[in-house]
Automatic annotation (TrEMBL):
Protein name, entry field: histidine kinase
Cross-referenced CDD domains: HATPase, HisKA
Gene3D superfamilies referenced in this protein's UniProt entry, alphabetically: 1.10.287.130, Histidine kinase-like ATPase, C-terminal domain
Organism: Herbaspirillum aquaticum
Lineage start: Bacteria, Pseudomonadati, Pseudomonadota, Betaproteobacteria, Burkholderiales
Residue intervals passing through the bilayer: 15-36, 176-198
Length: 485
């Protein structure tokens, strides 16, 4: 349980993490997307400005006296060469590749650069290193002609990357600032929302902590959200079962105390009487023997009752040693019949065992043995001298159902009236017809049988024999059984 608590951690923290971590990742992805989109827009804007400069320079290129010339005034030349955010370089190449004007060492157009499809012009954009710094260059093919000649001149305008990089950094920082602010605000909203949403749960926690240990009343499911109500209802159901268990324990303790008080009182009276007789000068051995035998019988009755009480308590709370295993119901029944055969013989009762092969079931061997001992012991105790008790084990099957096992104990004793057959499963209840047959009975045998049967998901039914008087107790074990003939 402690390991599960450490693994699960705090609910509020987990909710905040599960909300904020995906949100942060989404915001980060969105920031990257916005950043690259903004870079594309910035590159497009700077390339358009670079193309405009190239076109302005191309308008000043003409043919004079059979030579390509570029009429670039000093003021225009100064504006081309220097910009507020960096430097601008240009180069005009004639029809035969000769330098007309500008920087001769400006990097040429790479062969693999394609014409830009964005602008309706024969322009190509590329990046290169010039004087140990990166520059962006626009190369425009400009047709020039006069009456004597015509051809294509190349106008190149390069720009250093300071302006672009500055704009890129500004876009990046602005994006991160906005997205960081968004995440911070979202975190605060999520935190307060989680606290607000979990407030009913925390109130329920406070109500649970403030409850007295003896207060097992249910909680109102309407105090929490709809999704939490099944949990509260499950808690109420558990407390109801716990209340029933505690009530049963209290009732059991009260009944056990009442039942044990009688034999213990008798035993105390017998022991005091025995001591008084021992103080007499002349002690009658017959009287002393009768007193000691009475104490022994009372002790046996008290021990029998205590054992029955312990068995019932163990069956009710499932505290039997060991788990379930594959058990031969046939062998277990045969063993119980052998164990109680001497008791039957001493009462001159015929004890028969009937079986239909080796039938195996999933059961707790110790409790199964206790169940059969109680059934057979009851049958022998309440069967009159010269009567008959039969123990049967057989397999049963119904259409569409797996094979089950049936354990039957039949006797020809006084039986149990139909109106009392459900009551006899209550602890310490004794049917009227059986009290005069066995006045020293405890009324726990069938209660133990039902509890053990319930643990094995078996059903107990009481019925009258087909012929004559008596009682038939049937234990039907469900599920698939192993049948070996």
């Amino acid at each position: 349980m402690a390991q599960a608590t450490r693994r699960l951690g705090n609910l509020r923290s987990q909710l905040v993490r599960w909300l904020l971590i995906p949100l942060t990742l989404l915001v980060a992805l969105d920031a990257v997307s916005v950043y690259y989109n903004a870079l594309e827009v910035a590159d497009l804007a700077y390339d358009r400005s670079l193309l405009a400069s190239t076109r302005a320079l191309a308008e000043r290129v003409s043919i004079v006296d059979g030579h390509v010339t570029a009429d670039v005034p000093y003021v225009a030349l100064d504006s081309f060469e220097t910009d507020t955010l960096g430097r601008i370089y240009y180069k005009v190449t004639g029809l035969k590749g000769e330098l007309v004007s500008g920087y001769e060492d400006l990097p040429p157009v790479p062969a693999n650069v394609k014409r830009s499809e964005v602008y309706p012009a024969l322009v190509r954009f590329y990046q290169a290193d010039y004087h140990n710094q990166p520059i962006r260059i626009a190369a425009l093919l400009q047709p020039v002609y006069d009456d004597s000649m015509r051809g294509i001149a190349l106008i190149q305008v390069g720009e250093t990357m300071e302006g672009r990089n500055g704009m890129t950094r500004k876009i990046l920082f602005d994006t991160l600032w906005r997205q960081g602010t968004l995440v911070t605000v979202a975190a605060l909203l999520v935190w307060f929302a989680v606290r607000f949403v979990l407030r009913p749960v925390m109130q329920l926690k406070g109500e649970v902590e403030s409850r007295a240990p003896t207060d097992l009343s249910g909680f109102d499911p309407a105090l929490v959200h709809k999704e939490m109500r099944p949990l509260v209802q499950a808690m109420n159901g558990y407390m109801g079962r716990l209340q029933a268990l505690i009530s049963a324990q209290r009732r059991f303790i009260a009944d056990a105390s009442h039942q044990l008080r009688t034999p213990l009182t008798v035993l105390k009276t017998q022991s005091e009487l025995t001591l008084r007789e021992l103080r007499r000068t002349r002690l009658d051995p017959a009287e002393l023997r009768e007193l000691v035998e009475g104490m022994a019988r009372t002790t046996d009755s008290a021990v029998h009752l205590a054992n029955r009480l312990l068995t019932l308590a163990r069956a009710e709370h499932g505290a039997a040693e060991g788990g379930t295993m594959r058990v031969s119901l046939t062998d277990a029944a045969r063993q119980v019949a052998l164990e109680l055969s001497q008791q039957a013989v001493s009462r001159r009762i015929g004890l028969a065992f009937e079986e239909e092969g080796d039938i195996g079931i999933e059961a707790n061997a110790l409790l199964l043995h206790e169940l059969m001992v109680n059934l057979l012991d009851n049958a022998i105790r309440y069967t009159p001298v010269g009567g008959q008790v039969t123990l049967r084990v057989r397999a049963v099957s119904r259409p569409g159902e797996p094979t089950g096992a049936l354990l039957e104990v039949e006797d020809n004793g006084p039986g149990i009236a139909e109106a009392e057959r459900e009551k006899v499963f209550e602890p310490f209840y004794r049917a009227g017809a059986t009290q005069h047959v066995n006045p020293g009975g405890t009324g726990l045998g069938l209660a133990i049988v039902r509890e053990i049967a319930a643990m094995h998901r078996a059903t107990v039914t009481l019925d009258a024999p087909l012929q004559g008087s008596g009682l038939v107790v049937r234990i039907a074990f469900r599920g698939v059984v192993e049948l070996r003939t």
